[in-house]
Write a structure and sequence with these properties.
Layout lengths: L6 E10 L2 E4 L7 E5 L4 E5 L6 H8 L7 E6 L5 E4 L11 H5 L8 H11 L12 H14 L4 E5 L7 H13 L3 E5 L3 H7 L2 E6 L2 E5 L6 H19 L2 H6 L1 H31 L6 H12 L1 E12 L2 E12 L3 E5 L6 H8 L7 E6 L5 E4 L12 H6 L4 E4 L2 E4 H7 L16 H14 L4 E5 L7 H13 L3 E5 L3 H7 L2 E5 L5 E5 L2 H12 L29 H28 L4 H4 L1 H32 L2
Parallel strand pairs: 4-8, 4-9, 6-7, 7-8, 13-19, 13-20, 15-18, 18-19
Antiparallel strand pairs: 1-2, 1-3, 1-5, 9-10, 11-12, 11-14, 16-17, 20-21
Helix pairs in contact: 3-4, 9-15, 18-20
Length: 603
């Protein structure tokens, strides 16, 4: 029999600023049930209340209505997006503070694997160091339910890989808020969608979320048309825009693949064909940054070694590598901010750059949105034209009504989006983005992908967001810390594939034969094994059985997606949950059995 939830909220409602953030009286409140091994993605736009819901689950704030139930002995740990380190001398002092501190040796053990010194000064620690310290503290508490709010923010690729591996072996339940699509796809098996004050659940991981979202919006549109509710449709302009934007981005992705193919031809081996020479000449004429045999060291450490690179107008360049491998140094060399020790960098005289950094330092909390965008006026210059500030806000997924709100009242994600809106309006032909995806929600990432694709200039992007790079860049510069820079046409996965190929075990060299000896006899071709009657029957029938089990699992998951099912009929919830688990186990066994038989058949 399936185990009951370790935590549930029934009829949850919360007011903020005189309005119901979610679960108002007309909706009956939110119902939420978390099982002991759930792996849940919590999805929703910035401002929907995701972080607030985490605080309600963790009992840090009090709800206005509803009933919270927790299985006795359940340890809930919240990994906050921006924990407060003030008042603590070192990272370890912070980690061991609080009502239920973890054991110091457990914190040290995890911190060692993440490569963070917990004796670091808490105030001067970087964002990446603080994030590693927070992860060390959270995991050392051995939670039964782990709530993670943007866990991959400020982490490098090695740390993200480590965290994914740890969570893959984790025996408890977790709920995660993240903009990192790759992270979510790899780890989650259920999705909670917080949308316009309601909470939906579906027993599919994040990989199936976008299709589900579009199904919901399509059904809403049909219902609105049947009711002739034009005003209702207008009220949902944002959601409609999201769906349309995603479809437009498919066309942009097709264009990206074409650009990557052209780039691969340019950086590949030169051929003798006349066409190749024409492409090369055109390539040189369009170059905006040319690095020739560039090297840079700090002390005895070689940061960049013998890099030669041509960057064209319109290139989208991704820069990847672990923290400390030299990504920022490389950017400074390419943009002329830093001189190389040897070699040279030539930059086109007409290049005008805009830098959007991790610190979001341009956003003064006392300024209004109107002052940030339009210096207090009603119009903003965008490229060679002008747009009304409220219309421009709408393009960046803002409610135009926030035009006179103070920047300090916006969420971290909204401030990041406002900075993007401001900087993309400025005239430039070089855009440098340093970790642009931190604090952004998924819809804003779609928008950023769209804006970058339509940008006329050249883009340099430092990011640890693998999916974002795969959707955005035409070429990737990969740093491994040795000073070598790998130049690969394509995105993160193209670079990762090249690294995997380079580190794969080399094929064993053939032993040179004695010329006087007779050649060895040719090896006999593998012979297929004749199956027994039972094996042959399994081999023939198992594919149909696997398909039948897949349909049964899908039917069960559809029923379990009803968030009210457990409260309404716990016995049915348990029966169906157990049935789905049994079907999954049988499907896995059937797949393994069929693969074994297939190997025998194929010899």
């Amino acid at each position: 029999m399936a185990q009951p939830p370790i935590l549930s909220w029934e009829g949850l409602g919360l007011q903020q600023g005189g309005r119901w953030l979610f679960g108002g009286p007309d909706t009956g409140g939110l119902d939420l049930h978390i099982g002991p091994r759930d792996r849940i993605a919590l999805i929703g736009r910035n401002g929907a209340g995701k972080t607030t819901l985490f605080k309600l689950i963790d009992d840090r704030i009090e709800a206005d209505r509803g009933l919270r139930k927790v299985k006795p002995g359940t340890r809930i740990v919240l990994l906050e997006q921006e924990p407060d380190f003030s008042g603590h001398a070192t990272l370890m002092d912070w980690a061991l503070a609080g009502e239920h501190p973890p054991a110091a040796h457990e914190v040290e053990a995890i911190a060692g694997q993440l490569g963070i010194d917990m004796g670091r000064d808490a105030v001067s620690a970087s964002g990446g160091e603080r994030r590693r310290a927070a992860i060390s503290r959270a995991l050392a508490q051995e939670p039964d339910l782990l709530l993670m709010d943007e866990p991959t923010n400020h982490l490098d690729l090695a740390a993200i890989d480590w965290l994914e591996d740890w969570l893959g072996r984790y025996k408890g339940a977790f709920v995660v808020i993240s903009h990192d699509r790759t992270f979510l796809k790899r780890l989650t098996s259920s999705t909670l969608w917080l949308d316009r004050g309601s909470l939906r659940r579906k027993e599919v991981g994040f990989g199936g979320y976008e299709a589900w979202e579009e199904q919901v919006y399509a059904e809403e549109a049909r219902n609105a048309e049947r009711l002739d509710a034009k005003l209702k449709i207008e009220a949902h302009w944002l959601e409609r825009g999201v769906t349309a934007r995603r479809k437009r981005n498919q066309g942009r992705l097709e264009k990206l693949w074409q650009m990557r193919s052209a780039r691969a031809a340019m950086i590949g081996p030169r051929g003798a064909a006349k066409l190749q020479l024409t492409v090369e000449e055109d390539f040189k004429s369009k170059s905006v940054i040319v690095a020739e045999d560039v090297s840079k060291s700090f002390g005895d450490r070689k940061i960049i070694r013998n890099l030669s690179l041509r960057i064209q107008r319109g290139d989208r360049i991704g820069v990847v590598g672990a923290n400390g491998t030299g990504k920022t140094t490389l950017l400074k060399l390419l943009t002329g901010e830093m001189a190389p020790d040897s070699g040279g960098v030539t930059i086109a005289r007409t290049l005008t750059g805009v830098m959007i950094d991790q610190q979001r330092s341009l956003m003064s909390p006392d300024k209004t949105v109107r002052q940030v965008l339009a210096e207090g006026g009603d119009w903003i210059e965008v490229g060679d034209g002008k747009k009304h500030v409220q219309g421009y806000l709408k393009e960046f997924l803002f409610d135009p009504g926030i035009v006179d709100a103070k920047v300090g009242t916006l969420s971290g994600g909204e401030r990041s989006r406002l900075l993007l809106a401001r900087e993309f309006a400025r005239k430039s032909n070089l855009l440098v983005l340093d970790e642009p995806t931190n604090d952004l929600d998924l819809e804003t990432l779609d928008l950023l992908q769209e804006v970058i694709a339509d940008y006329d200039g050249t883009v340099l992007i430092v990011s640890h967001d693998r999916d974002f790079l795969d959707r955005t860049v035409t070429m990737t510069l990969g740093l491994d810390g040795s000073g070598k820079v790998d130049v690969v046409a394509g995105g993160y996965e193209d670079w990762a594939a090249k690294r995997r190929a380079a580190t794969a075990p080399a094929a064993k060299a053939p032993v040179r034969a004695d010329p006087a000896a007779s050649p060895p006899p040719p090896s006999a071709p593998p012979r297929a094994t004749k199956l027994s009657y039972k094996d042959q029957r399994d081999y023939d029938l198992l594919p149909a059985r696997i398909e039948e089990l897949e349909r049964a699992i899908a039917r069960g998951e559809d029923i379990l997606s009803d968030p009210d099912l457990y409260a309404r009929d716990p016995q049915r919830f348990a029966t169906i949950t157990q049935g789905v688990a049994n079907a999954r186990a049988e499907k896995e066994a059937a797949e393994e059995r069929w693969l074994e038989l297939a190997e025998l058949v194929e010899g």
